C-alpha cells in the first residue's frame, strides 16, 4: 500500500517529522516537497536535524502569487500522482501546498487524509482559512487535533471518518526536546539568560503586508524595553526593509533558526509573543505565557485555558500583555497524549485496508 505525502512549508516538515517515520513501518511512503519553502534555514535544516526521509520529489515551485504558486503545484503534483498511483495522499495544515496536494488528489479520486483538520479562524481573508476549509471538504479521512476541530467540522456537515488523535506537533516536541537540549547551544551563542528574554516570531501575511500593523508591532517590541529574540521569517525581513522599520538594540534580530534551536529558545524564554499557529501551541507545551498578535486564533482552547491572550496589533495592548500577562490556571489536556502519529497510522491502516 502506498501513501503519498505532500509537504512544502516549514511547519509541515516538523509535522511530517512526527508522522513519516511512524507510517513507514507499515506503508510505502513517497514524500513530495513542493519547494514552497526553499532557503536552507526554512527547509533543508529540518530534514537534516529531524531525520525526515529525503523527499522522493522536490518540485522546486518556490515563491509567487497564490494562484500561480498553487496552480503550478497542482500541475506538477497531478503528473506524479498519475505515475505513482498512490492509495492515499496525506497533507498537513493549511498552506498552499496543502490545498494543491489535496485538490490534485481529489480530482483523480484518490482519497485524501488531512492532518490538522477542522481548525477555523472564521476569517476568510486569511489564505490559510481558505486552504483549510477547501481541503477539509475534499478529504476522506480527517485528523482534527482538538475538540474544537471536531466541532467545527460537524458544523460544516463533516461527521464521518473524523478522528481527534491529538496534535502531531505535541509528538514532535516530545520526540525532539531531549535532542534539542543536547545539541542546541543557541542560548549561550546569543548570551541569553533563562527566563530573562522574550521570544518573538512574526510572519502572518495580515501583519507583514500592512505597514500600520507591522509598525505597531515593531514599536511595541521596541518600547517594551525587554530583551527580545526575533528569528525573522524571510517574508517579514523583506517588509521590514521595504517599510524602513528599525529595532532597538535590545532586540536580537536573527535568521530563521532550526527546530532544535527554536525549541531551546522557547524552553528558556520568559514569554512568547507571536502570530504563528505552531508557536502558539509550542508556548502551551512549554508552559510559557503566549501573547498572540492576531485578531483571532484557531487554538481557542489555549485562550480559554488562560495561557494565551489575543492582543491584535494595537501597540498598547501588546505592550501591556508583555508586561502583565500571567497565566493563572493549571493547564488542561488540550492536545492529546503525544502519540498522534501512532494513532494516525492505526486509523490509516483501517481506512485503507477496509476500503
Ligand atoms: C506560508 C503559509 C503559511 C505558513 C507559513 C509557515 C501559505 C499561503 N502560507 O507562508 O500558512 O504559516 O508558510 O512559515 O501557504 N521566502 C523566502 N524563502 C523561503 C520561503 C519564503 O525568501 O524559503 C519569502 C519569499 O519572499 C516569499 C515569502 O517569503 O514570497 C512568502 O513565502 P510563502 O511560502 O508564499 O508564504 P509564507 O509567508 O512563508
Ligand atoms: N520555527 C522554527 N524556526 C523559526 C521559527 C519557527 O523552527 O525560526 C518552527 C516553530 O518552532 C514551529 C513552526 O516552525 O514548530 C511554526 O512555523 P511557522 O510559524 O512558520 O508557521 P505556522 O505554524 O504559523 O503555520
The CATH topology name of the largest domain reads Rossmann fold
Global shape: globular
Total count of strands = 12
Going by helix content, strand content and strand pairing, the class is alpha/beta
Looking at CATH, the homologous superfamily of the largest domain is Glycogen Phosphorylase B
Task: Count helical runs.
Answer: 16
List the quaternary state of the chains: single chain
Query: Percent range for helical residues?
Result: 40-55%
Span between termini: 12 Å
Main β-sheet, spatial strand arrangement: 3-2-1-4-5-6
The biggest beta sheet is recorded as:
6 strands, parallel
Rg of Cα set = 20 Å
* SSE order, one letter for each helix or strand: EHEHEHEHEHEHHHEHHEHEHEHEHEHH
Mean pLDDT: 97
Beta strand %: 5-15%
Organism: Clostridium tyrobutyricum DIVETGP
GO molecular function: UDP-N-acetylglucosamine 2-epimerase activity
InterPro entries: UDP_GlcNAc_Epimerase_2_dom, WecB-like
Keywords: Isomerase
Key phrases:
355 residues, alpha/beta, 2 domains, 6-stranded parallel sheet, 16 helices, binds uridine-5'-diphosphate
Question: What does the secondary structure layout of this molecule look like, with pairings?
Answer:
Blueprint: E1 2-7, H1 10-23, E2 28-33, H2 44-49, E3 57-58, H3 66-84, E4 88-92, H4 96-107, E5 112-115, H5 127-137, E6 141-143, H6 147-155, H7 168-183, H8 186-189, E7 198-201, H9 205-208, H10 211-224, E8 228-231, H11 234-243, E9 251-254, H12 259-267, E10 271-274, H13 277-285, E11 290-292, H14 300-304, E12 308-310, H15 315-324, H16 340-353
Parallel strand pairs: 1-2, 1-4, 2-3, 4-5, 5-6, 7-8, 7-10, 8-9, 10-11, 11-12
Helix pairs in contact: 1-7, 1-16, 3-4, 4-5, 7-12, 10-15
This protein binds uridine-diphosphate-N-acetylglucosamine (UD1) and uridine-5'-diphosphate.
The site of uridine-diphosphate-N-acetylglucosamine has 19 residues, from helix 1, helix 5 and helix 11.
Protein name: UDP-N-acetylglucosamine 2-epimerase
Domain UDP-N-acetylglucosamine 2-epimerase: 25-349
GO molecular function: UDP-N-acetylglucosamine 2-epimerase activity
Amino acid at each position: 500500500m502506498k501513501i503519498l505525502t505532500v509537504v512544502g512549508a516549514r511547519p509541515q516538515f516538523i509535522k511530517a517529522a512526527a508522522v513519516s517515520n511512524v507510517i513507514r513501518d507499515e506503508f510505502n511512503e513517497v514524500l513530495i516537497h513542493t519547494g514552497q519553502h526553499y532557503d536552507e534555514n526554512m527547509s533543508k535544516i529540518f530534514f537534516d536535524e529531524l531525520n525526515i526521509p529525503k523527499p522522493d520529489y522536490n518540485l522546486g515551485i518556490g515563491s509567487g502569487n497564490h494562484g500561480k504558486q498553487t496552480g503550478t503545484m497542482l500541475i506538477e503534483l497531478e503528473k506524479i500522482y498519475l505515475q505513482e498511483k498512490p492509495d492515499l495522499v496525506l497533507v498537513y495544515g493549511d498552506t498552499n501546498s496543502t490545498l494543491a496536494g489535496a485538490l490534485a488528489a481529489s480530482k483523480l479520486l484518490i482519497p485524501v487524509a488531512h492532518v490538522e483538520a477542522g481548525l477555523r479562524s472564521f476569517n476568510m481573508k486569511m489564505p490559510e482559512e481558505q486552504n483549510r476549509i477547501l481541503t477539509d471538504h475534499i478529504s476522506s479521512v480527517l485528523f482534527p487535533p482538538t475538540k474544537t476541530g471536531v466541532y467545527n467540522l460537524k458544523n460544516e456537515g463533516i461527521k464521518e471518518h473524523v478522528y481527534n488523535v491529538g496534535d502531531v506537533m505535541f509528538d514532535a516536541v516530545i520526540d525532539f526536546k531531549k535532542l534539542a537540549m543536547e545539541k542546541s547551544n543557541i542560548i549561550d551563542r546569543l548570551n541569553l539568560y533563562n527566563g530573562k528574554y522574550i521570544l518573538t516570531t512574526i510572519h502572518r501575511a495580515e501583519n507583514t503586508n500592512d505597514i500600520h500593523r507591522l509598525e505597531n508591532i515593531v514599536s511595541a517590541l521596541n518600547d517594551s524595553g525587554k530583551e527580545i529574540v526575533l528569528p525573522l521569517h524571510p517574508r517579514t525581513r523583506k517588509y521590514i526593509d521595504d517599510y524602513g522599520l528599525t529595532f532597538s538594540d535590545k532586540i536580537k534580530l536573527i535568521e530563521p533558526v532550526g527546530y532544535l534551536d527554536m525549541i531551546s529558545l522557547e524552553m528558556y524564554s520568559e514569554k512568547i509573543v507571536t502570530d504563528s499557529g505552531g508557536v502558539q501551541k509550542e508556548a502551551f507545551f512549554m508552559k510559557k505565557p503566549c501573547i498572540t498578535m492576531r485578531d483571532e486564533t484557531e487554538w481557542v482552547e489555549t485562550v480559554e485555558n488562560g495561557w494565551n491572550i489575543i492582543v491584535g496589533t494595537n501597540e498598547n495592548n501588546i505592550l501591556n500583555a508583555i508586561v502583565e500577562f500571567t497565566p493563572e490556571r493549571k493547564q488542561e489536556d488540550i492536545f492529546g497524549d503525544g502519540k498522534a502519529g501512532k494513532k494516525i497510522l492505526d486509523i490509516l491502516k483501517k481506512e485503507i485496508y477496509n476500503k
